[in-house]
Amino acid sequence: MLGFIADAAELDLPELYSTELLTGLQGLVRSTWVAYQDIDHDAKEFVDFNGVGPDEGEPGPEVYLLLGPCPTQEHRARTGDLAAVRNSDLIDVRGWHQLPLYRDYFRPANVEYILDLGLSAGADRIRSLVFMRASGEKDFSERDRAVVELLTPHLRNLERTAHLRELVRRSVCHAQRYQRESATGEDVGLGFSALTRREHEIVELVASGSTNAEIATALWVSPSTVKKHLEHIYAKLGVRRRAAVVAAHYAPAPLAGADWSEPGA
């Protein structure tokens, strides 16, 4: 565990729950899949999601949200308890296998066992790290639960550190923007260095021609969340339309004074 914590502290990434960190967790607590999820429980939509593990062709977020909630998610919403909990602590095997969520979502993805660690969030949000194992493997043990519980204070520290790094990064980007705008007299935006991991992913998908609905499905978030991310991207890049984001993506260092706004805007 000490090795994982040291390695995680060295990750200088805009967002903490990156693929690199989740891969480290996958090795720390042997799991087939590990995911970070942030769910708006009332709106029934994913605010953020990232996961690592084999692609078993899971049906997709809209199916999960339609058939859910998962017993662990329901437990969090009902009790507010953030302690690590297994699916098997909340429901027996027969009851689990009878749930439509299991039959139509988890079983096709070959997920049998779940260990969920709650993370602090607002009243209408449920954030957690989800460790999953496939059918044919053993359920998570009490030792696994204890290891995950021991992570909690370290994850809080890592979240605070990541937040401070993001504040510093944004301050530097704003200072650089001010210097460029003072020199050119143009609104040049903050640039791609100001984008978060999720925003970079959305720019890539926009550049590939994906619609908001397709991006939402690919990233396990709602179309309204994609729209909000795009608004932030427009502001940071100093553009007004989707086509300008694509242009900026393929030419990330435009000449000073280049106008990325739509004609007549």
Automatic annotation (TrEMBL):
Annotated GO biological process: regulation of DNA-templated transcription
The keyword Cell inner membrane is assigned to this record: no
CDD domains reported in the protein's UniProt record: LuxR_C_like
Pfam families (UniProt xref): GerE
GO molecular function terms noted in the UniProt entry: DNA binding
Signal peptide: none
Entry-linked InterPro entries: Sig_transdc_resp-reg_C-effctor, Tscrpt_reg_LuxR_C, WH-like_DNA-bd_sf
HTH luxR-type domain mapped to chain residues: 188-255
Annotated SUPFAM superfamilies: C-terminal effector domain of the bipartite response regulators
Alphabetically ordered keywords of this record: DNA-binding, Transcription, Transcription regulation
Protein name: ATP-dependent transcriptional regulator, MalT-like, LuxR family
Organism, as annotated: Intrasporangium calvum (strain ATCC 23552 / DSM 43043 / JCM 3097 / NBRC 12989 / NCIMB 10167 / NRRL B-3866 / 7 KIP)
